[in-house]
């Protein structure tokens, strides 16, 4: 549910392994895109009060539902991610055999929480983080078997956060650690959960390599031929470093693109 930048790549990997995949999008223009990729497409929209679209057919007979739609507050400040997850969980009560994989975010942790692990108690900074945490609690309370994966900042293909910082000045927290993860590693991580059946977990999918922000984004901008960013000289309390302490033991996972560089680098 939410077959976008990450969902489509995950769907392709699942199809390559012989799985039948349904995908939801919110605009009719994207239905044909999914169909051409071999994904059975559905037009489904979630808002704070209801879900529109043929959700019953979308969920009928589904073994695993990957919940991959973004919180959406950047485009719509009134969007309530937790409310949307709650509506979905209530409907899923009619599909008790459907397992749930929620793609959450390390945004549940505050920027000054320091080193955090899967069992660390999140203290979100703002409304977005609070909604993420509340959504996780709804998933954990569902009767369905479920796993939550908190993703780091996503990198891969043409997507790189350095593009948002290019040419900017006085960027705060130059020494704060990066908490990124490459799209290819995320897909491998999620595939292992789905195919090996690691349910009832809360996991972190974040590269073990944490660069200082100023160093990483300066070098990335050079590599991408972007205008260099400049960072503030003042100290910052931002020190969040999110650790994945479980996946290596749980399913022998290792990050192949731990430096979170750019495709072809």
CATH topology: Rossmann fold
Proportion in helices:
25-40%
What is the total tally of β strands? 11
% residues in beta strands:
15-25%
Biggest sheet record: 4 strands, parallel
Structural class: alpha/beta
Q: Flag low-confidence runs.
A: none
Strand order in the sheet with the most strands: 4-5-7-10
Q: Helix and strand succession?
A: HEHEEHEHEEHEEHEHEHEH
- Shape type: globular
How many distinct folded domains?
Answer: 1
* CATH class placement: Alpha Beta
- Any idea what the CATH architecture is? 3-Layer(aba) Sandwich
Which key terms come to mind for this protein?
Rossmann fold, four-stranded parallel sheet, three-stranded mixed sheet
How would you describe this protein?
The protein has 265 residues and is of the alpha/beta class. It has a single domain (5-158, 179-210, 238-251), classed as 3-Layer(aba) Sandwich (Rossmann fold). 32% of the residues lie in helices and 17% in strands. The chain contains nine helices and eleven strands. The chain has helices at 5-16, 31-36, 55-59, 81-92, 127-141, 162-165, 183-196, 213-223, 247-251; strands at 22-25, 40-46, 51-53, 64-67, 99-105, 115-116, 146-151, 153-155, 180-182, 202-205, 241-242. Strands 4-5-7-10 form a four-stranded parallel β-sheet, with helices on both faces. A three-stranded mixed β-sheet has the order 1-2-3. Strand 4, helix 4 and strand 5 form a beta-alpha-beta unit. Helix 4 (81-92) packs parallel to helix 5 (127-141). It is globular, with a radius of gyration of 19 Å. The relative contact order is 0.14. The mean pLDDT is 94.
């Amino acid at each position: 549910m939410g077959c976008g930048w990450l969902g489509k790549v995950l769907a392709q990997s699942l199809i390559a392994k012989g799985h039948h995949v349904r995908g939801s999008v919110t605009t009719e223009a994207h239905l044909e895109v999914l169909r051409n990729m071999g994904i059975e497409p559905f037009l489904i929209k979630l808002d704070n009060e209801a879900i529109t679209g043929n959700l019953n057919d979308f969920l009928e007979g589904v073994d695993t539902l990957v919940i991959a739609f973004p919180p959406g507050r950047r485009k719509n400040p009134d969007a309530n991610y937790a409310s949307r997850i709650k509506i979905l969980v209530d409907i899923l009560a009619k599909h008790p055999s459907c397992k749930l994989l929620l793609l959450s975010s390390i945004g549940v942790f505050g920027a000054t929480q320091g080193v955090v692990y899967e069992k660390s108690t999140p203290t979100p900074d703002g409304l977005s983080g609070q909604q993420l945490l509340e959504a996780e609690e709804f998933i954990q309370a569902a009767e369905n078997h479920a796993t939550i994966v908190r993703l780091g900042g996503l990198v891969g293909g043409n997507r790189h956060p350095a593009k948002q910082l290019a040419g900017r000045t006085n960027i705060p927290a130059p020494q704060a650690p990066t908490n990124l993860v490459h799209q290819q590693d995320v897909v491998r991580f999620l595939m292992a959960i789905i195919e090996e059946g690691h349910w009832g977990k809360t996991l972190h999918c974040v590269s073990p390599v944490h660069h200082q922000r100023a160093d990483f984004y300066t070098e990335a901008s050079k590599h991408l031929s972007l205008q260099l960013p400049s960072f503030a000289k003042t100290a910052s309390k931002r020190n969040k470093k999110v650790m994945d302490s479980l996946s290596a033991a749980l399913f022998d996972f290792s990050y192949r693109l731990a430096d979170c560089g750019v495709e072809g680098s």
